Amino acid sequence: MSVGLPHFLTVSALLFALGLFAVMKRRNAVGILMGVELMLNAANINFVAFSRYVQHGIDGQILAAFVIVLAAAEAAVALAIVLAMFRNFGTVNADAVQSLKR
Amino acid sequence: MTGDLIFYLLAALTILPAFWVVLSPNIVHAGFSLLLTLLGAAGLYAYLGADFVAVTQLMVYVGGVLVLVLFTVMMTRVPRGDRPNRGLDRYVPPALFSLLVFVLLYKVITGTQWAASIEGPAQPTTAEFGANLLTNYLFPFEYVSLVLLAAMVGAAILIREHRTTDDVDTPPVDDEKQNEQEVTS
After folding, report:
1. From residue B131, how far is each of A59, A94, B2, B116, B127 by CA, in Å?
2. CA-based diameter of chain B, in Å?
3. Closest Cα in chain B, distance from residue A14 (Å)
4. Interface test with B, best of A26, A62, A67, A82 (most B CBs within 10 A)
């Protein structure tokens, strides 16, 4: 069976499941963020694969580019929050940070 | 076929390091594995004919987000003794749940009759991409630039050292911490 749409969807599903696993398992806030990045990439692979195999157009690729931009914005804000958290609590363990204020 | 072989190599490059991103006890190793995963995903985009998205992925993710992630990881290192011990009970419920999600997705993927077809070899997309951004997608394009600006300002405000009147008595921050601040900004 030659490579087709289901192959890409399977890779993407695997990547999504791994990202979900990371988000649930990791306690380090940066690790959780890495899981989110994996899930965003899974969604992006789906966008581009459907754009190539089903829509034969450019819309999926443009949406994928928007997702990349938003992921960059999300990463910048999230990492700033992690650094502020480290400054105020001395830890990046997401379980240990339970109050809004020091 | 060579094309299929390239796909499987790229898929392996995407998936195998992703396991290490999830399982590695060392967060720095996880970050470097994420680099390989993102490179593999960029290869998959290129394989699908999305050359512009592939290069954007390389520049924004590998060149930007990942550097940011690694900086943060290295700035927020916790001494070994402070780390919570890892028990098996932390792995089992997430593993079961994500396996369930994967099986569900896989059943949907294999059980659906996709209206998939392929229209000849992939063409360069950059010209069409740019034309679409400035016509059909003009509003989202401008809007997302506003979102980026807001995120940039928000991150700068979050990272800033607060100097209110309450902090007058506290000793000044040590040099190392100030260096970290400079690197982030």
Report:
1. 12, 43, 33, 26, 6
2. 71
3. 6
4. A62
Q: Residue B62 is encoded by which pair of tokens?
A: 């590998």
| Residues with Cβ within 8 Å of residue A55, at least 6 apart in sequence | none
Indicate yes or no: pTM above 0.95. Answer: no
Question: What architecture (CATH level 2) is domain A5-89?
Answer: Orthogonal Bundle (1.10)
Chain A residues with CB inside 8 Å of B115's CB?
A: 54
ipTM of the complex: 0.90
Ordered domains of chain B (ranges, CATH): 1-77 (1.20.120.1200), 137-165+172-185 (no CATH)
pLDDT in tens, chain A (102 residues): 678 889 999 999 999 999 999 999 888 889 999 999 999 999 999 999 999 898 888 899 999 999 999 999 999 999 999 998 888 888 888 888 887 776
Q: Domain extents for chain A? A: 5-89
Q: If you count residue pairs, one on A and one on B, with CB atoms under 8 Å apart, how many are there?
A: 229
Please report residues of B whose CB lies closer than 8 A to that of A22.
21-22
